[in-house]
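Hi support team,

I'm filing this because I wasn't sure whether my run with cytidine-5'-diphosphate finished correctly. The job status page said complete, but I'd like someone to confirm that the output block is well-formed before I use it downstream. Pasting the exact inputs I used:
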Amino acid sequence: MAFTVAIDGPAAAGKGTLSKALAAHLGFAHLDTGLLYRAVGAKLLLGVEPLEAAETLTAEDLAADNLRTAEVADAASKVAVIPEVRAALVDFQRAFARRDGGAVLDGRDIGTVICPEAEAKLFVTASPEVRAERRWLELRARDPKVAFDAVLADVRERDERDMNRASAPLKPAEDAVMLDTSDLGIEAALKAAIEIVEARMQALKA
Ligand code: CDP
Ligand code: CDP
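And here is everything the job wrote out:
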């Protein structure tokens, strides 16, 4: 039976970490949909036309080791404004969402566009400063010279682009539960998310 958990929210809110742990807890499959856009963005940086890249993505593309860099994140949010690129990635995400045995997907438009019928929807947020600090700590491990202010500026710019695009903009679904993790560690955020999903499971059984 299908049970979809849709996790959306802005950059570095902790969606991926939370989704992975939640999926492990529930025994569900997990898809980080940002990776699809990052893989298309990485191809763009190599000179491949974005629609062609989206239509021909391979497992190898999704495993490229540069996908977590700031350059690729920026390119991802640029290709993500192109409606045809988004459309080319829909079927794969929908099929994943409705697979038997349950799925957790995280991204920007899972609860609004990819799977509006998702049984549980969370919108994970944190202040821009907290999110930038989290991302800075990660990026600094790859490059000690990376400046906090530059990461904060990138996060703000990407949020702006994601929220203001015409096609599938970042916004909470009407029936999403908001989870602000500004003051929550990973364990506490996971506990809150588990409670939200289990409450939905109980409600659907009743
Ligand atoms: O997927 P998204 O960009 O929303 O965030 P992430 O990559 O899961 O998390 C960004 C960083 O924040 C990771 O290094 C996490 O360890 C850290 N973090 C978190 O995910 N959740 C918290 N409540 C606190 C920190
Ligand atoms: O990890 P972080 O939250 O920083 O970014 P991500 O989830 O890997 O997504 C990278 C970019 O892909 C975002 O800034 C969005 O522009 C785009 N994206 C999207 O448009 N729709 C999704 N479902 C997932 C990502």
